[in-house]
Design goal:
With 164 residues, the chain is of the alpha/beta class. Helices cover 59% and strands 15% of the residues. It has eight helices and five strands. The protein has a five-stranded parallel β-sheet.
């Protein structure tokens, strides 16, 4: 089990929290892609979105993912939009397994509504629901394992380890 494990899903599904638990359980190093981008650029995700826009951010995200994918034995919490591009999905496919953490829109929204994330701040609840529904088939398509993420991080980490 030396290949990477990539966690994907909509904002608020628990990628970072579950990823941290999974890294402890598997002995793999944990990397949060968004935090990696912040460390690499010296700028917050919000600042990149505000100053340069989403398209620019997605290019930075692909570059960061490419760097991470060169490393081995990782658990990586992807951003909610990372696997929307075929290039990013292919990077994950070639270097590990992608796990889709499925959670209802309502549960995700309750977790993110006060988060200050760029997509949340700039969209209404119904617009976010539209984004969620648009992304759902891509999360499904680009993941080899699907997990119902409505449980405790430790239990979910054990389930992912068992299914990988």
């Amino acid at each position: 089990m030396s290949s990477n494990i990539y966690l994907t899903g909509f904002m608020g599904c628990g990628k970072s929290t579950i990823g941290f638990s999974l890294s402890k359980l598997t002995g793999k190093k944990f990397i949060d892609l968004d935090k990696f981008i912040v460390a690499e650029t010296g700028r917050s995700i919000e600042e990149i979105f505000e100053t340069d826009g989403e398209e620019f951010f997605r290019r930075i995200e692909t570059d960061a993912l490419s760097k991470i994918a060169e490393m081995k034995n990782l658990v990586v919490a992807l951003g909610g939009g990372t696997v929307l591009t075929e290039q990013n999905a292919e990077i994950c496919r070639k270097t590990g397994k992608t796990v889709f953490l499925q959670l209802s829109f309502e549960t995700s929204y309750e977790r993110i509504k006060s988060s200050g994330r760029p997509l949340v701040v700039n969209h209404t609840k119904e617009e976010l629901r539209g984004i969620f529904e648009q992304r759902l088939p891509l999360y499904t398509k680009h993941s080899s394992v699907h997990i119902d993420a409505d449980n405790s991080p430790f239990i979910l980490a054990k389930e992912i380890k068992k299914r990988i």
